[in-house]
Amino acid sequence: MADEVTVNIRLESAIVYARQKGRELAAELGFSQSELTIIATAISELARNIVDYAGNGQIIMQLIEKDGQKGIMIKAQDNGPGIPDIELAMQDGYSTGNSLGLGLPGTKRLMDEFEIDSKVGQGTTVTVIKWKRNDINFKI
Ligand SMILES: Nc1ncnc2c1ncn2[C@@H]1O[C@H](COP(=O)(O)OP(=O)(O)OP(=O)(O)O)[C@@H](O)[C@H]1O
Ligand SMILES: [Mg+2]
Questions:
Q1: Rounded distance, CA 140 to CA 84, Å?
Q2: Which of 14, 27, 43, 48 has the most Cβ atoms closer than 10 angstroms to its Cβ?
């Protein structure tokens, strides 16, 4: 499998597909089952926001390496309406969609790095990274 996958997001089915592809890609790095679930959850939340608020966009998933540490970077981008107040959107419980308002703040808590860039009338890009914990070998 290539170390980068892009999924166009418009329909519900694409959310499921992106989630599955991200899980497969991350599995290549040897993430644990619970970490894979965390990564898949982050992908779902970001993809769902694209469907709900922007209509369409892309999820780009890439295996990365920095200072000998491996990880997966997920970029969710759209050319939708943008977010007028990012600080507000990042608060637990804030939703313009009559939903729980936990997608963005929850994703931030689940991932190691989280960056959001949004401009009204231009679109939104959310970039998140999960680093693979270094394996600990207990020698006896
Ligand atoms: N891609 C996006 N484009 C435009 N607005 C967005 C986008 N993603 C999030 N938002 C705005 O930020 C708010 C908060 O997003 P968040 O994912 O945290 O909550 P939610 O989608 O409303 O509810 P939940 O994710 O819990 O179902 C949204 O209600 C929406 O107003
Ligand atoms: Mg959401």
A1: 56
A2: 43
Cα–Cα distance between 28 and 62 in angstroms, integer?
11
pTM: 0.95
Give the pLDDT score at 60.
Answer: 98
Considering every ligand atom shown, identify the ligand nearest to the alpha carbon of residue 89 and give its number: 1
Residues 89-98 have pLDDT tens digits of 999 999 999 9
Domains observed in the chain: 4-131 (3.30.565.10)
Report every protein residue that has its C-beta within 5 angstroms of ion ligand 2. Answer: 49, 103
Residues with CB under 6 A from ligand 1: 45, 49-50, 52-54, 78, 80-83, 89, 94-97, 99-105, 124
